[in-house]
Design a protein that fits this description.
This protein is an all-beta fold. The protein has a domain at 10-62. It contains no helices and three strands. The chain has strands at 22-31, 38-44, 52-56. Strands 1-2-3 form a three-stranded antiparallel sheet, with no helix packed on it. A hairpin with a 7-residue loop joins β2 (38-44) and β3 (52-56).
Amino acid sequence: MENFVSGNTETTKIGFVNRNNQRCGGHRGVAGTDHGQFAYRMECLEPGCGHIYGANGTDVFQRKCPKCQAGKDGISF
């Protein structure tokens, strides 16, 4: 799968922005590190950051940026 697609929940839809100002960019069918999860592309929207990283679908709603918010390291997506 080349293109990114939305997940099945509101928090994993492309464009969802969580409470920590992280935007979900969808997944490409790549398995995450949690059981049964896909790896989602995340982008930090904090001013001056813009870091892009991967996260399991179960983490999207609460994820913090690994670069500017001391969140855990991203995963391959």
